[in-house]
Queue: 4 jobs
Job 1
Amino acid sequence: MSVFTQPIEWDQSLIQRYDLAGPRYTSYPTAPQFQETFSQASLFRAIVRSNLAQRPLSLYFHIPFCESLCYYCGCNKIVTNNKRRALPYIQRMIQELALYADMFTPNKQVQQLHWGGGTPTFISDDEMSLLMNASRRLFNFADDKTGEFSVEIHPGQVSINTMAHLRQLGFNRVSMGVQDFDARVQQAVNRYNTRAQIAALIQALHAQQYQSISMDLIYGLPLQNQHSLRETLQQVIDLEPDRLSLFNYAHMPHLFKSQRLIHAEDLPCPTEKLEMLHLAIDTLQQAGYVYIGMDHFAKPDDDLVKAQQQGKLQRNFQGYSTHGNCDLLALGVSSISMIDNVYVQNAKELNIYQQTMDKGLLPIAKGFTLNQEDLLRRFVINRLICYCELSFHELSRAFDINPQQHFRTELAQLQPMIEDGLLQIDNSGIKVLSKGRLLIRHICMVFDECLQQTDHAKTIRYSKII
């Protein structure tokens, strides 16, 4: 039986012992390692290699505007009611996309598209058309059956007519932030959407022939408890989304100003949070959802499950994703691209981003070029976090190393986890067991060379892994 079809084995004492702070591994090396001294020539060479390899593209557009402030949010956002701010920004994103289009081969296919934010539906229908039509003009898009074209929405603020317009533009997937249905919790975080609103929206999305609907939930919010979360989960299950993301709320007001509006005394204690996570995982698995890993669930016939079964799953800046063969080109303020062996991050400040675009330059603020050792460790972490196993034979073939010799120190560090029943290691490789799946970030941290550097460990503050 696959570890992904088994119920999670919950060991409270082990979870509490291993529940340390650590990266979420949407990349390796992680974003704190990116350097301002990064040379754009490294990016240009990576694009050449991408063209030679004929890898398809995944496009991401960061639309940072929101009409209201959600107190828990840690995203790069701009809260405003001034709709006139959107068009100049979209025009500059199109300009940025055109600069990249000149570098990629004309037949480069876009297999994935994602609009995130912020709230992308902040922009008008005409602005949506402008951005999408420009994207199709500059790049070759896969068809509706094979391409995944998704948009994030606030279900309490979007109209059914807008969703119809997005479908006409080619979007076929929707990700909506539900977070929690409890009225007290919603008031505590200033995020409102009723079950009736979402039920009506989902009915319309099905009628508009969207292929997949995903919902985001958060556990650990203020005034949230097991009872309220159970009620939310049951309502969500009744709505039958194709995918679910269950995120841990990390209270880090020193990093995110909006979180200072949350009363710390209203937050559930760590033990209560763990109990809520246990409840959520059990409830969703009993409802038939497959636990992909970390924070993602999907119906058994969903493409995310199929990608995991077929070896095509990847972990990137949007979380778990299909089309692991794609390079990621990200546009807009603060967005991060992942092309061949480089990461590049755009300027985080809107004014700096727009001023750089006005000079006709790429708005890159930081970047990182992976060396062979980085690529090896990225491969290891991706395999573990996506498939809960690592084949030594595959590793040897791909990187021409003796894995057991190369990682002898790391394998020794895993020994206590073997004794605790989190994983198994033999001559064929590493297998994470059911008891270890919740602690996969901790397992991956053993292979994170950056974390072994004392200065790095002291200066970077991560959230708890659970």
Note: The radius of gyration is 22 Å.
Job 2
Amino acid sequence: MIILIIILLVILVSVLWQRRELGKFEVTHYIVPSAKIKSPVSVAVISDLHGFSYGENNHKLLDETAKMKPQAIFIPGDMLVSKYPHTYAAALETLAELVKIAPVYYSYGNHESRLREPECVNHGLFEQYMKNVRALGVTVMDTETRSISLGENRVMLSALELELDYYEKGSIVPLEASYMHKHLPLVEPEKFQILLAHNPAYAEHYAKWGADVTFCGHNHGGLVRIPGIGSLVSPQLTLFPQYDAGKFELEGRFVIVSRGLGTHTFHVRVFNRAELLAVEFVPQRRG
């Protein structure tokens, strides 16, 4: 009987701790140096929000974003949960406030990509959601490249929407060597190149393609993290994902993977607090 009570108490404490943990996020700061940057630039990165709200009307997240005074807000996908329409409304409300802070650039994650399929049950609702998103002034990006201004800097911003086959549960489907150049040719490689690519599994491809910095999400930090070891499993059900969270330098270029701000299906975060990214691009002398 005593053992049963102890087990029940442990379960209760774990549930309460998780509820408390899922209601918090932190701001993670990164610096990206580049000789292609003329003057410092601050940007915010919001990934995998999944319709979450931190406080009434998401005021905690919005307040922290505003404090950064970013010159742009980048969203590398999954603002909502595809099968839950109420998350579309929550995402839209958040976007309506974010555009008041800075220009917002939004690319597709696997949840948005799934909803773009005409046979998806919520396809019509998603089409209306995207129409409303664009009406707010959000720049929605398919697989494409645009030239944008960040302060005194003219930079290239690209987005990559991978086919849903590359999100197969339990495995990482190889990306063919020529995939990036076939789908997203480099336009002006002498300019600072930013890439929004939801799935971090292909980080080496993004760096080799030529992105000076790539912003990813998707792995939610690996759900459960062991201090000193890293994550155990991704939402895609791959074990010990290599690119789970943090800043990675590959061939002199950077891939930054967000732990995300929301969850879906597996509402678990152990030693893996949600995060809002504050990133500064700074000039670096050549050589």
Note: The mean pLDDT is 91.
Job 3
Amino acid sequence: MLYSVKMRSAQGGAHELGGRHISGAERILPGDQLDYAVLTMLHRAREHERGCADFISLKVEEIYKPLLAFSTCKAATAAEGHRAAIDELVRAGVSINAAARGLAMLNGLTDSMRGAMVLDAESGLRIDGMGERGVRASKMDCVDSRGYDDYLQQSGLVGDHVREALVLASKVAGAEGMVAELCWSDDPNYVTGYVASPVYGYRRIPVMKERGNGVGGRIFFVRPNTDVAKLINYLEEQVVLIKPQEALTC
């Protein structure tokens, strides 16, 4: 197993309470090196030339996340796809108002964003503060690429769109506070989208827009009071490897 180990330290209390930063460190390493790495980071925080830290935060996370179960909704038109998306979002725990608001936001885009909008799953309010840039989910890959490709072929799935989307959605679903994700592509001739959630997996929706439409987007719905800074750090900076597993069907 591989683990992400992060340390940050301060003097005079936590950083959030005005403490003066002393040092920080981050490593990705196998389990048999964890003890040594943690002790080294503690020593660094307490013996640093900037001073002795009285606040030390250590976080150890396994970097593996499971591949989401895959299934397909029925939708022959964009209107049917949108109704299916609302149903799936609500089933995952998003309020009906937040689901409708999120769908309207994506429909209202005049150009594709570089990242995703983050919405409160209860109120539907956007809470990321990242403007047109949005929040980018990155630094993820599949552990066994050949096995993953075999799984996709056996499931009748081909193309880079679904290959990349399923890995990304699996990382996103592992974020603390995540309720659901809504997405469709900005490629004009790829009209498929999806709703993904930690509970119900990746729900492919065959039609989410009209062919020729070059605007797409992504929304992350999160629980109220989710630590947005922590969420963004996970999505943009945390390295995650996705483990393929036997698909569930419905």
Note: DSSP finds six helices and twelve strands in the chain.
Job 4
Amino acid sequence: MALKPLRIVAIGKIRTPFWKDAAEHYLARLRHWRDVQECLLRDGDASLPVPDRNAVEGRRILDALAPQDVVVVMDERGKRLTSPQFADFLRNISENAAARPCFVIGGPFGLVPEVRAAARHVISLGPMTLPHELARVLLCEQLYRAECIIRRVPYHH
């Protein structure tokens, strides 16, 4: 079953070694089945006030989105899904021949409303606030888990 590529648009590189290793681990597993394109955008200037920094990062995210992207913003205020529900969601958005699933994760101070407004879907990785590096790891793991569920590979319990 060949499925179209997935895209992850995120602010900043993962700098913490164990988060970086974990994300790479799940991305490598996921890439056995799908091309995963990462678009890592530069952080806003740390000397800027948080609202200005978020605005800069938000503009970079919006500029990186392509017309064929089905934008899925990861935000703690988003819809909560179980892993099987997330797998169904991924399967459904992957079936559209003209679209590409595109998952967006903001920087350390979250996302501006304009980015959430540009999303077709807003999904939560959980109700707690997570460090954005950990959120990236969780997204990669859940994408891998979803692929395993879709393909009936024994990983999900």
Note: The mean pLDDT is 92.
